[in-house]
Each structure stands twice: as structure tokens, then as C-alpha cells.
């Protein structure tokens, strides 16, 4: 039986171990982002999201109060299953509920097409962040 995929708002304190496990697996272990760049003070204030298959968390994202969406991470075995889009849609919906008609993010260049499908547009030249090529992207809600 296939487990249901779902996304929920996470609690930074209560869900901390799962949020950290996913981000460490993707950003620190897979992409070699230094831990001191991965963890920041924004985590305390952000709205976090957890994507799960059944009860097992497999993806995360966060939304800052200014409409910045970031730390979008899906465990390797689950990529291509629609989880990333589910996380992004949850973050966009939460931003819009908060009256944030402009959402923005810093995307890894290889992922720009994914974000474009969600309505984001590239608004910068390519630049390196943690040694990985990125671009800034913006989305405006209707």
C-alpha cells in the first residue's frame, strides 16, 4: 500500500530533529554546505513545513516573515515524486494568507525550471553561494 504524501506546518522546537535530519542529509552531506551556513537565527522565527509519507518526514521548507522561501529539501529517494511542489505550494499559500503578495527565493541554478513552473522568475545574474551556482527568483501573487 502506498503511503499518503502530505505537508504540514512544523514546529521548530517539537520537529527540530526531523527538520535537521532532512536538511543535514541534503545540504550538508549531499551538497557539502558548511553547517555554519546551513543553520541561522532565521530558523527560530520562520514558519517551517514538513512533507511526510505516512508519518515519515521526507522533505522540508521554510518561510520567513518577508516572503522569503528557503531551505527547500527533499530526501534523495523521494525526489521527482511531487513533494517539492507540495512544499512550495504550502509555503506560497501561507505567504499569501499572511498578505505577502511577493514571494522570493534563492534557487540553485539546476532547479530554476522547477521554480518557474510554480510562477517564479529569475531576477539576477548567476552567483555562487556555499560554492553552488544560484540565482534570485521572485513570484508575484495575483
TrEMBL record:
<dbReference type="InterPro" id="IPR016181">
    <property type="entry name" value="Acyl_CoA_acyltransferase"/>
</dbReference>
<keyword id="KW-0012">Acyltransferase</keyword>
<feature type="domain" description="N-acetyltransferase">
    <location>
        <begin position="5"/>
        <end position="142"/>
    </location>
</feature>
<dbReference type="GO" id="GO:0016747">
    <property type="term" value="F:acyltransferase activity, transferring groups other than amino-acyl groups"/>
</dbReference>
<dbReference type="Pfam" id="PF13673">
    <property type="entry name" value="Acetyltransf_10"/>
</dbReference>
<protein>
    <submittedName>
        <fullName>GNAT family acetyltransferase</fullName>
    </submittedName>
</protein>
<dbReference type="InterPro" id="IPR000182">
    <property type="entry name" value="GNAT_dom"/>
</dbReference>
<dbReference type="InterPro" id="IPR050832">
    <property type="entry name" value="Bact_Acetyltransf"/>
</dbReference>
<keyword id="KW-0808">Transferase</keyword>
Amino acid at each position: 500500500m502506498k503511503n499518503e504524501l502530505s505537508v504540514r506546518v512544523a514546529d521548530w522546537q517539537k520537529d527540530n530533529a526531523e527538520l535537521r535530519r532532512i536538511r543535514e542529509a541534503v545540504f550538508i552531506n549531499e551538497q557539502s554546505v558548511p553547517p555554519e551556513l546551513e543553520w541561522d537565527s532565521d530558523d527560530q522565527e520562520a514558519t517551517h513545513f514538513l512533507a511526510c509519507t505516512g508519518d515519515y518526514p521526507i522533505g522540508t521548507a521554510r518561510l520567513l516573515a518577508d516572503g522569503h522561501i528557503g531551505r527547500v529539501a527533499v530526501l534523495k529517494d523521494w525526489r521527482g515524486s511531487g513533494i517539492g511542489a507540495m512544499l512550495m505550494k504550502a509555503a506560497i499559500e501561507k505567504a499569501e494568507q499572511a498578505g505577502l503578495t511577493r514571494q522570493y527565493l534563492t534557487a540553485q541554478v539546476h532547479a530554476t525550471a522547477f521554480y518557474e513552473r510554480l510562477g517564479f522568475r529569475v531576477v539576477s545574474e548567476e552567483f555562487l553561494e556555499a560554492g553552488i551556482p544560484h540565482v534570485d527568483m521572485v513570484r508575484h501573487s495575483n
